[in-house]
């Protein structure tokens, strides 16, 4: 019997597309993407939010480019980011007037690392093909990749009408949901073919077909993956706020990722009032890390608590440790190789505490109700010490700092 851990299916084979310094495709790690919600014309606020997202771990950041003011701000945003030593690829999101904005603002067209086009929002009737081609021509001119992002809230109505006519001619018509899903896939694939016909290389195209229903998203991407080898960007559009948005996005994306589908992901959370935009980055990272697909930051295992753990101390310590490793990770990442794979455990009583602690690189088993007031600490499976008193949290963080400094190779230093 093999003791190797279970794993996701092999990645669906897709082409490699380069977006600035980031490679996207099945031969590269799955990439985390996010999007700003600032007024792009305010280049300082937008640059600051891009920097926050990048430092939280977003590897691609998309910005709205919806008017002349925002297009003119893009070079200023890049300049401001360089002053802050932030080098993250920026994606321009275009709807309705992208062909005009790119033509009238060549500096914007040149500075962006990728364009996103929604084929349902590039124009109507005879203008649609001309305006779509104009954006693609700018991508060709400046050697930029393009994401063709179909969304069921703005689906090309001419494609949908054609799919409905085709369905009416079937001897056994499909239900409306299947027709909608087919229209999404066809819109994406036909738009990609049109982009290639204009001159954009197949290795410069990424596709997405976003919906807000979990089951429809899964079914749509399964079909899209079956019919193409373009890299696929995953995201449940308008996922919602708080736990609803997190659960829905996780449910949908985890199924697809487990099947090997998906090359970039974005979690489209509605922020809580005054909430942090970076939450969507953390959720995306945690989905990938808990599935064993990538590692971003040390993960903390903690028990849920029960009648044996009437004290809230283990909860406070678990939260404190989780916050501490996220705060320290930018520094650790800069100085040490592999620290993102570190595992930690903060347990609340003797039932599972010692066992879980031994499975982690560093684990602490706190005393439950009625247990001896002592907290054994395990390092790499062996009991290393016992902590007591009121300073356990600070002492545990010191143990963590010492472990990182002594167990991980400093960057630039030979092992």
Automatic annotation (TrEMBL):
GO molecular function: 4-hydroxy-3-methylbut-2-en-1-yl diphosphate synthase activity (ferredoxin)
Cofactor(s) needed by this chain: [4Fe-4S] cluster
Annotated keywords: 4Fe-4S, Iron, Iron-sulfur, Isoprene biosynthesis, Metal-binding, Oxidoreductase
Residues covered by the IspG C-terminal domain: 300-401
UniProt superkingdom: Bacteria
Gene3D superfamilies referenced in this protein's UniProt entry, alphabetically: Dihydropteroate synthase-like, Sulfite Reductase Hemoprotein, domain 1
Pfam family, one: GcpE_C
Cofactor note: Binds 1 [4Fe-4S] cluster.
Record has Oxidoreductase as a keyword: yes
Residues binding [4Fe-4S] cluster, per UniProt: 303, 306, 349, 356
Domain spans labelled IspG TIM-barrel: 14-284
Pathway named in the protein's UniProt entry: Isoprenoid biosynthesis; isopentenyl diphosphate biosynthesis via DXP pathway; isopentenyl diphosphate from 1-deoxy-D-xylulose 5-phosphate: step 5/6
Primary enzyme class: oxidoreductase
Function in brief: Converts 2C-methyl-D-erythritol 2,4-cyclodiphosphate (ME-2,4cPP) into 1-hydroxy-2-methyl-2-(E)-butenyl 4-diphosphate.
Record-linked HAMAP family: IspG
Name used for this protein in its record: 4-hydroxy-3-methylbut-2-en-1-yl diphosphate synthase (flavodoxin)
UniProt organism field: Uliginosibacterium sediminicola
């Amino acid at each position: 019997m093999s003791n190797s851990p279970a794993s996701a299916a092999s990645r669906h084979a897709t082409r490699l597309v380069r977006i600035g310094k980031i490679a996207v495709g099945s031969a590269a790690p799955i990439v985390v993407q996010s999007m700003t919600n600032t007024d792009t014309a305010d280049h300082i606020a937008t640059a600051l939010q891009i920097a926050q997202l990048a430092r939280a771990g977003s590897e691609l950041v998309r910005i709205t480019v919806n008017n002349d003011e925002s297009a003119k701000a893009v070079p200023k945003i890049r300049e401001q980011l360089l002053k802050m030593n932030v080098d993250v690829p920026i994606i321009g999101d275009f709807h309705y007037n992208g062909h005009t904005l790119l033509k009238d603002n060549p500096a914007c067209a040149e500075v962006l690392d990728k364009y996103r086009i929604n084929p349902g929002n590039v124009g109507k009737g005879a203008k649609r093909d001309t305006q779509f081609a104009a954006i693609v021509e700018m991508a060709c001119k400046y050697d930029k990749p393009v994401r063709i992002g179909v969304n069921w809230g703005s689906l090309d109505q001419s494609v949908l009408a054609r799919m409905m006519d085709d369905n009416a001619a079937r001897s056994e018509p499909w239900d409306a949901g299947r027709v909608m899903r087919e229209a999404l896939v066809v819109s994406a694939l036909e738009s990609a073919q049109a982009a290639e016909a204009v001159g954009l290389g197949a290795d410069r195209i990424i596709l997405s077909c976003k919906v807000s229903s979990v089951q429809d998203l899964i079914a749509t991407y399964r079909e899209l993956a079956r019919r193409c080898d373009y890299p696929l960007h995953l995201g449940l559009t308008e996922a919602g706020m708080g736990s609803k948005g997190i659960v829905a996005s996780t449910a949908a994306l985890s199924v697809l990722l487990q099947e090997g589908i998906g090359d970039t992901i974005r979690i489209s959370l509605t922020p809580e009032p005054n909430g942090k935009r970076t939450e969507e980055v953390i959720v995306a990272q945690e989905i990938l890390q808990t599935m064993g697909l990538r590692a971003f930051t040390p993960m903390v295992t903690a028990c849920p608590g029960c009648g044996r753990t009437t004290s809230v101390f283990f909860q406070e310590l678990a939260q404190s440790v989780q916050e501490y490793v996220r705060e320290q990770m930018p520094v650790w990442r800069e100085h040490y190789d592999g620290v993102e794979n570190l595992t930690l455990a903060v347990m609340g009583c003797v039932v599972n505490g010692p066992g879980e602690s031994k499975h982690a690189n560093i684990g602490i088993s706190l005393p439950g109700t009625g247990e001896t007031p002592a907290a054994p600490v395990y390092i790499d499976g062996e009991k290393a010490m016992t902590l007591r008193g009121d300073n356990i949290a600070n002492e545990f963080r010191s143990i963590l700092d010492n472990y990182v400094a002594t167990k991980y190779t400093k960057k630039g230093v030979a092992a």
